[in-house]
């Protein structure tokens, strides 16, 4: 799945399949300016920052069990969001400090370090990486990803795929080759 925010005409947190199909709103009320997302891949939770409402909130992948983690003026200056173990990590855009927040109750807020001009944060750790299994976009015997001539996108599951073409090409009737 692909998770993303939008705060154009109607602010929301959404998800869709990797090929853009099955687009679903998971949060569309009491939300104004969601600017960053973080996923708990193990427990299937979505965390987001709303800088207008000055809050960090969480829902499950279906948009249920919504909770506010923390709220207050300090949220207005946060950008980027990552989750690892018991904490959320974010950047204070005023002083570029890395902030750690307890993700269960919003307490234990600490500034950890300072990075000049930081705007985003990611945690790279072996335990945060999903196990790789065979999938529909693996190269076929001819080296084509999922048998697609240009781009292979996972669809409704790791066993399904959608072929797409680069700009200026159209997908052939076989659903795999681009012309």
Automatic annotation (TrEMBL):
<dbReference type="InterPro" id="IPR000033">
    <property type="entry name" value="LDLR_classB_rpt"/>
</dbReference>
<protein>
    <submittedName>
        <fullName>LRP1B protein</fullName>
    </submittedName>
</protein>
<dbReference type="GO" id="GO:0005886">
    <property type="term" value="C:plasma membrane"/>
</dbReference>
<dbReference type="InterPro" id="IPR011042">
    <property type="entry name" value="6-blade_b-propeller_TolB-like"/>
</dbReference>
<dbReference type="Pfam" id="PF00058">
    <property type="entry name" value="Ldl_recept_b"/>
</dbReference>
<dbReference type="InterPro" id="IPR050778">
    <property type="entry name" value="Cueball_EGF_LRP_Nidogen"/>
</dbReference>
<feature type="repeat" description="LDL-receptor class B">
    <location>
        <begin position="1"/>
        <end position="43"/>
    </location>
</feature>
<dbReference type="GO" id="GO:0042813">
    <property type="term" value="F:Wnt receptor activity"/>
</dbReference>
<dbReference type="GO" id="GO:0017147">
    <property type="term" value="F:Wnt-protein binding"/>
</dbReference>
<dbReference type="GO" id="GO:0060070">
    <property type="term" value="P:canonical Wnt signaling pathway"/>
</dbReference>
């Amino acid at each position: 799945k692909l998770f993303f925010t939008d705060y154009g005409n109607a602010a929301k947190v959404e998800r869709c399949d990797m090929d853009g199909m099955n687009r679903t709103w998971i949060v569309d009320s009491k939300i104004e300016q969601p600017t960053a997302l973080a996923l708990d891949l193990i427990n299937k939770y979505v965390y987001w920052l709303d800088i207008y409402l000055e809050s960090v909130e969480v829902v499950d992948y279906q948009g249920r069990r919504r909770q506010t983690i923390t709220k207050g003026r300090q949220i207005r200056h946060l950008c980027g969001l990552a989750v690892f173990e018991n904490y959320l990590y974010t950047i204070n855009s005023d002083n570029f400090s890395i902030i750690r927040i307890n993700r269960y109750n919003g307490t234990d807020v600490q500034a950890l370090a300072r990075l000049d001009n930081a705007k985003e944060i990611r945690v790279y750790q072996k335990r945060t990486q999903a196990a790789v299994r065979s999938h529909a976009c693996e190269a076929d015997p001819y080296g084509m990803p999922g048998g697609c001539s240009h781009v292979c996108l996972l669809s409704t599951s790791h066993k399904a795929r959608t072929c797409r073409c680069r700009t200026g090409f159209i997908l052939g009737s076989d659903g795999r080759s681009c012309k």
